[in-house]
Amino acid sequence: MNKKLLCFCVSVLFVVITSGQSFSSPDGQLKLNFKVEGEGIPFYSLHYKDKQVLKDSKLGFILKPFMSYFSEFKVEAVEQSSFNESWKPVWGPNKEVVNHYNEMLVHLVQNKTGWKLDIRFRLFDDGLGFRYEFPVQPELRHFTINNELTSFNLGKDYKAFWIPADYDTNEFPVTTSKLSEISKLIDDVRKESLAAKAPSKDLAVQTPLMLKSQDGLYINIHEAALVNFAAMTLNVDENNFILSSALTPDKNGDKGFIQTGSVSPWRTMIISSDAKKILSSNLIVNLNEPSRIEDTSWIKPMKYIGVWWEYFTGGGSTWAYSDNQDIRIGETDYRTLKPNGRHGANTKHVKEYIDFAAENGFDAVLVEGWNEGWEDNQAYRKERIYSFTKAYPDFNVKELHDYAKSKKVKIIMHHETTSSVVDYERQLKESFQFMKDNGYDAVKTGYVGPMIPRSEHHDSQWMVNHYKYVTETAAQYHIMVNSHEAVRSTGLHRTFPNWIAQESARGTEFESFNGNRPDHTTILPFTRLIGGPMDYTPGIFEGDLSTYGSNKAQLSTTLTKQLALYITMYSPLQMAADLIHNYKKYPDAFQFIKDVAVDWDASYILEAEPGDYITIARKARNKNEWFVGSITDENPREATVDVSFLPKGEKFEAVIYRDGKNASWNHNPKSYEISKQTINSGSKLKIKVAPGGGFAISIKPLK
Prior knowledge:
The protein is an alpha+beta fold.
């Protein structure tokens, strides 16, 4: 393995038989109390710095048809232990991760049935993780979940950064409001036009959920290691300020088919009085298992460009080769069809992107629309939509493979399923073999539209297992996976490091639809990115899409904010998403995208406030180079960049890409300035940021 584990572990075990137990985090700041009360119902509560974070909060399940797996329990035993290790990820924002926690494992047994249930709690210095474990037992082997009763009894009206609970999409814009205001706002938010929607019938929101109290406590609620379980949303009791787990059902209403000997995902809370520590937390990845891939040498972070954004600009380019919609995969002979003349994924055009990638040091080129089927990609009504091994007549697979190889550039495969997942699984191994035969090492998968099998949602248990199956199968072929429209990330990239990125939120493409607000990317790192990296596809220089024709959209950022996103929106797979000719117009600004790293030795959260601003610095992996990104919402501000992370006693050149004096996201967004100055570890840079703006800094040692 290329990951060397540095581990120091202390474990203390004792067994007690009692209904109440407590334990603390390694630094003593967090304290959890567990008890069984009343009718044998398990509860937990949580304190942080002697302040109550959670009042008594219920635990357990209701099984189908209606059987209690939450009451009549007694404590059979309690075990406590401590653990401390440092481990090295294959890729990530830091080359080494500390995993230090105290643990309490509670063994419960139900009085009448004899059913057993274990609850494992872990307290880190920055938060809590707990999961249910279902022991193998003679009285219980298989069961169906009706409801999970896990609750988070906050008892306060927190400010929340939320999107509505929906079983088929994560692409709503984020709304900021008090918990008590969600019911007044949620119906309007749900009107957002999206490719597939299946809203919860309850007043509920999705995770990761970011919260802030009036007295400055930050809480993030999510889940880790989502495996063989339905994704969790949160029902909202706006009168008592209690959030409770609501699992994604299938269309029959079942929320999970469980066999004993398995575990639930971890329910997680990251907690701090400092917003910066929410962003620097490793709690989610630490609750996932180590890599199951022994040889990870083929997994490479990369920077790429692609035939993609042109489909959204309104300039006329299209995924489809022909305008004939009477398409039957395996029967239609595309050589007999008339080309529409607007097909973007053609050999000549892709070669232009390969040339540009090679000239500018990019690793790969994504090509969407290369394969048969785009003319009639009907979601839900059609099962066999695409071929993942047959290219359009104007896309020469072998010629492009040879050409890309000669330029030392990879082509990224695209597998849009339009959510016909059944057919994708039929073709999966053949498709991955086709990729290996033709030099493709990475695939972007897509799940637009409602799901086939028609009994499932994007976030139900069956689909959660599908995403894992695709990733595990891809690993057998040494293929990296970048999944779009999939269930939100829960840190599984630690266990499967070839799952190199996901979208699973409202990305750049929405700038060309209904738009994103200027505060959008100041919130996503506190919500979606808590679970793992996002393929946000930044780097759009021409924000006025009316220049292309029919699309009248305008981006919600300045040009230099687009540069900053390469730092603030972490991903080991970063796209320069704009059209080639726009980068040629602004070669000085494009230099930052060429220079910026995609893998890191260390990350430093310098400033952060959800919904307002973020400033992050990162050190490039195995290089003495640092990059800084800072973004703001619709309000201007002055950022402070403390570069004390630099080695002492040395001088560095900082190249600063900042907003122009009269720039803003909706006026003069392409106005920018580039300056250079000498700095050292004692320097503090004060930089003004325009409304909807940002800045980026490249720092290298002076020669």
